[in-house]
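User: Please predict the structure of the protein below. I'd like the answer in structure-token form so I can feed it into my own downstream comparison script.

Assistant: Understood. Taking the following sequence of 160 residues as input:
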Amino acid sequence: MKGRVVGWLVLAARLVVGGVWIVAGALKIPDPASSVQAVRAYRLLPEAVVPTVGQLLPVVEVVVGLALVVGLLTRTMAVASAVLFVAFIIGIASAWARGLTIDCGCFGGGGYDPDAAEKYPWEIARDVALLAGSLFVAAVGHRGRWALDHVLFRRTPLES
């Protein structure tokens, strides 16, 4: 019974975290200039890499999200997801600590936001929760239900 519950929890975590990545990336892809603006607003990266990061990040988010939703390379994508969330938590905390009032750009937009300081704690809390989901999937993702990994990478009895 315990293994079944874990399998369903992994599936739920994959769908929630993956769904968030898909929505976040898909909202940014049509407007790469805003995505670049959001990355620039954090003032953390050298200007030479800002356009590349701003344009590639939404695509990476969608790819990670889709892979998690369908359960493809589940552990690898969960680790990638966790790394991204750690980077975003650091970025938001850094902006908050430096007194920047910027939209996080998490779901599009970016740039100046006069109400940003009020939003930072909630954005960090959301990302910490999603980070926890990513780490859970990375830890026990092989037990998840309805994953392509089960079809593509079947384990033989000796590997179990």
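That's the full token string. The longest strand covers residues 102-103.
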